[in-house]
Write a structure and sequence with these properties.
The structure holds two protein chains of two kinds. By secondary structure, chain A is α+β, with helices and mostly antiparallel strands. Chain A folds into six domains: 4-139, Up-down Bundle (Four Helix Bundle (Hemerythrin (Met), subunit A)); 146-272, Up-down Bundle (Four Helix Bundle (Hemerythrin (Met), subunit A)), CATH 1.20.120; 284-341; 350-406; 409-588, 2-Layer Sandwich (Heat Shock Protein 90), CATH 3.30.565; 593-726, OB fold (Dihydrolipoamide Acetyltransferase, E2P). In chain A, the strands form four sheets. In chain A, strands 10-14-15-13-12-11 form a six-stranded mixed sheet. In chain A, strands 2-4-5-7-6 form a five-stranded mixed sheet. Chain B is globular and about 30 Å long. The chains are: A alpha+beta, B alpha/beta.
């Protein structure tokens, strides 16, 4: 073993200590010592000299507390440090000569811990005693220079504008630490200057926001929409405060703050602890008032009465007063209880949950493998068969339960959207009422964030283009107030989300005209209403005449369609001119499972997502053509579709090469359909999608893998990718 | 104490630079240069003689610690005293700065007296 590096590092440390001029260690020397210790730990690790590593770590802790000035007894600290170095030399020598160190290092570790350990509790006291100090010193830093404050106002406002833009970017890339950093920095700077200028409220708020972002930056907090809301509200309040300062400076009347700072700071602190912004438990009286059974005055009167009989509950008193019936109270209590259970949910790290679900997925695969093995055994034990089928039932219900753990109600998404509608309506000068149905409908937690953007875009369209202005509505004989309905329900394995408005509806004529102008259709095409409406999902086809600051910026429905399809969802549109439109989106409940068709090519099994499949057929020989300039085509119900020989792309020897002997699957990509040539269709399967890992992630044509019932692996094909492969892109 | 030394104040927030400049003036230091981030600071350091760097930690382009490391890695600039400004003693930051060879650190907000004290301590060692 090579001890020379180690011995040299310790000797360096010792000699540096000896050559220290005075007994107070300055910061640069402390830095040097720390680096020595780091080298010692690095050199000791491969040699497995654990006692040494532990002593060195303890010494490092002492140094850190010296740097941070939290050491109470500096002389003792210094002495312990010297002892520690001597101890390290002893340990190394022992290891060098006899290969071990027999004495205990415990006494030293305890001594070191007491030096620094005391400090930790001492620390709090130190801080408290320092508090008045800083206060006093701050007063000394009075605002001597008004121009400083002016500079702060101007630069601070600039910074906040920057924050706002960056937060919106963050919402798009919540994982980006860089993005969090660019938001963190301005808050940090504002706080720094505010503390010098004695602007305590601004400093406090900026400080709290900074802490929150710091946690997000260190991955201790996830960037959720509610976190972003809190930060935005914080930035708004900061801006308002700086503007107040400006008014004050310019001798203008100061506008009062529209938010309660203490409440805001509490909210920030709450999000810092990872609590989502949930409405707190409502009081029984509030529920009854909301249900329209009693008035607020009634509640207040009853509360007055209750002062005399404190042991009674408000429900009882209200019943005695004859204001409500017992049934109404019990209903209200049930509502309250529902909320209470909601509040008592347990927060679990999503990674743990994903791991659990993953493991259950493995379990399901293993059990289906066992089942197949069993089937192959001719005279299997009957008891075993029965037990296995019992096992099968349990695993599948376990799978269902574990999947449901990740499900959350769509309510929060709806609430965010309704808030957005309110804001948008105000901007657009419209009056809009929002109705929500099926907020309890559950969806995979991972889907929630994904579906938000496309939904928001449709909501914006509804507000901006769908609904008329109040004047227009009155003229059309409709109520002045527009209506937007958000509706969610389950259908099959999908969650369906409908956004409908009672506005002007889509104009078929306008869509057709525009599509014709763009050359997307010929006048002769016979189109169903659905076909026409769906054309607004094509790029470059927006019927909006007015461009507003929210929608109509060139980001049209085509982008919505793309992002919906990326989530394996689809959009349907219903509309009646003059009566409104409904956008019906459906998404799979989870991204973890895919509904697929298993196909065989040679000896390999592939999975094609069912959603992409239009049909499967064995073409007649005469329907196969070689068209010049187009390549091989299959005539599918009058439509000539290109043929893609999967085995060629995948480099496999197939069983059948002639389409009329094999099967073609008509698959839809982003804007075209093609026929994939496969040997056979094995059947339908719901498979758990497995990530292929970093190395294989970017392989074109394949979007993932799955373990099949027989234990083999099947790759999941990505139609668009396969098409592109065939086109040589 | 030589009040004529040239001090380079590095901070991305212009107001903050002004604050520090004012505090320095209060205790008699008049010869001050400014830089808005690590990159411009390095340029300034190479083009003129700087006797003391006072730098913020959190800056775009090149952070305070990155600047410190650059300075300490440069044969010519190496001995320049470096005073790091941090927000409420972020312990990990302070330790990292110390390991990278910072001369001293100062926690925001500070008074002119504290700043003076730290500058003295830093320069005494040189």
């Amino acid at each position: 073993m090579d001890f020379s590096v180690l011995i040299k590092s310790i000797d360096d440390l010792a000699s540096d200590l000896v050559f220290l001029d005075d007994k107070e260690i300055d910061i640069p020397s402390l830095g040097k010592f720390m680096n020595h210790l780091e080298n010692i730990i690095k050199a000791a690790e491969p040699l497995n000299i654990f006692p040494l590593t532990r002593v060195a770590t303890a010494l490092n802790q002492i140094l850190e507390s010296v740097v941070l000035d939290t050491l109470k007894d500096k002389a003792l600290g210094f002495h312990t440090f010297e002892t520690g170095i001597a101890l390290m030399q002893e340990i190394v020598q022992n290891f060098h000569s006899i290969g071990e160190y027999k004495a205990s290092i415990q006494p030293f570790l305890e001594a070191a811990a007491s030096v620094t350990g005391v400090v930790i509790s001492e620390d709090a006291n130190v801080n408290i005693s320092q508090e008045p100090d800083t206060q006093a010193s701050e007063e000394k830093t009075q605002i001597q220079d008004m121009s400083l404050v002016k500079d702060f106002i101007a630069e601070g406002l600039e910074y906040i504008d920057e924050i706002e833009v960056n937060i919106l970017n963050l919402e798009q890339n919540p994982e980006s630490t860089d993005m969090i950093n660019t938001i963190f920095r301005p808050f940090h700077s504002i706080k720094g200057v505010a503390s010098f200028l004695n602007l305590e409220k601004i400093r406090d708020l900026a400080h709290n926001l900074e802490n929150l972002l710091d946690k997000a930056r260190n991955m201790e907090l996830r960037v959720t929409p509610s976190l972003i809301d809190v930060i935005l509200d914080g930035a708004d309040a900061l801006k308002a405060m700086i503007l107040q300062l400006k008014d004050e400076l310019e001798n203008r009347p100061v506008k009062p703050l529209s938010v309660d700072l203490t409440v805001l700071i509490q909210r920030i602190k709450k999000s810092e602890n990872g609590d989502e912004d949930l409405p707190s438990k409502r009081k029984l009286g509030e529920i009854l008032v909301e249900d329209g059974l009693i008035t607020t005055d009634d509640v207040n009167q009853t509360l007055d009465l209750m002062r005399d009989v404190p042991q009674k509950k408000i429900g009882e008193v209200l019943i005695e007063e004859g204001k409500v019936t017992p049934k109404q109270v019990s209903q209200a209590l049930r509502k309250q209880a529902e909320q209470a259970t909601e509040a008592s949910t347990l927060r679990v790290d999503t990674r743990k949950l994903d791991d659990l679900i993953d493991m259950v997925g493995e379990l399901v695969i293993t059990q289906s493998m066992i089942q197949q093995d069993l089937k192959q055994q001719a005279n299997a034990d009957k008891n075993l068969v029965r037990d296995i089928s019992q096992f099968f039932r349990i695993t599948s219900s376990l799978q269902r339960t574990s999947m449901s753990l990740r499900m959350v109600p769509i309510r929060q998404t709806f609430q965010r959207m309704s808030r957005l509608i309110r804001d948008l309506a105000k901007n657009a000068g419209k009056v809009i009422h929002v109705e929500m149905f099926g907020e309890e409908t559950e969806i995979d937690r991972n889907m929630v964030d994904e579906i938000y953007n496309p939904l928001v875009h449709m909501v914006r369209n509804a507000v901006d283009h769908g609904l008329e202005t109040p004047e227009e509505r009155v003229m059309a004989g409709k109520p002045e107030k527009g209506l937007i309905c958000l509706r969610a329900y389950h259908r099959g394995g999908n969650i369906v989300i409908e956004i409908s408005d009672d506005g002007r509806g889509l104009s078929k004529q306008k869509i057709v005209d525009k599509a014709f102008k763009k050359g997307l259709i010929s006048k002769l095409d016979e189109l169903s209403d659905q076909d026409i409406f769906k054309m607004i999902l094509l790029p470059g086809l927006s019927t909006a005449e007015k461009i507003t600051d929210v929608s109509g910026r060139g980001v049209g429905m085509d982008v919505v369609k793309q992002s919906v399809e990326k989530l394996r969802g689809k959009i349907d549109i219903e509309s009646k001119q003059g009566q409104g439109s409904t956008f019906i989106t459906s998404f799979p409940l989870t991204l973890a499972i895919i509904d697929g068709m298993m196909v065989k090519v040679g000896h390999e099994v592939y999975i094609i997502p069912t959603l992409a499949i239009r049909q499967a057929l064995r073409p007649a020989r005469e329907n196969y053509n070689l068209v010049v300039g187009k390549g091989e085509t299959i005539n599918v119900m009058g439509q000539l579709l290109p043929l893609v020989r999967l085995y060629e792309l995948l480099g496999i020897e197939p069983e059948k090469k002639n389409p009329w002997e094999a099967i073609v699957v008509v698959v839809e990509g982003e804007n075209r359909a093609k026929c994939l040539l496969v040997d056979n269709i094995l059947g339908k399967a719901e498979v758990v999608i497995k990530n292929l890992g970093e190395g294989l992630k970017h392989i074109k044509g394949v979007s993932g893998g799955a373990i099949l019932g027989d234990g083999h692996i099947g790759l999941i094909l990505d139609p668009e990718g396969v098409f592109e492969l065939g086109e040589g892109k | 104490m030589d009040k004529q030394i040239k001090i380079l104040v590095v901070d991305d927030f212009a107001t903050m630079r002004k604050v520090i400049r004012n505090l320095l003036k209060q205790v008699g230091y008049e010869n001050i240069a400014e830089a808005e981030d690590g990159v411009t600071a390095l340029k300034a350091l190479k083009s003129q003689k700087i006797d003391l760097i006072i730098s913020d930690w959190n800056m775009p382009n090149m952070t305070g610690i990155e600047l410190l490391k650059e300075v300490r890695a440069d044969e010519e600039l190496k001995p320049t005293p470096f005073l790091m400004v941090t927000a409420e003693a972020l312990q990990d930051n302070v330790i990292a700065a110390v390991k990278a060879g910072v001369s001293n650190y100062i926690v925001k907000p500070f008074t002119a007296e504290v700043l003076n004290e730290k500058i003295k301590k830093t320069l005494d060692k040189v």
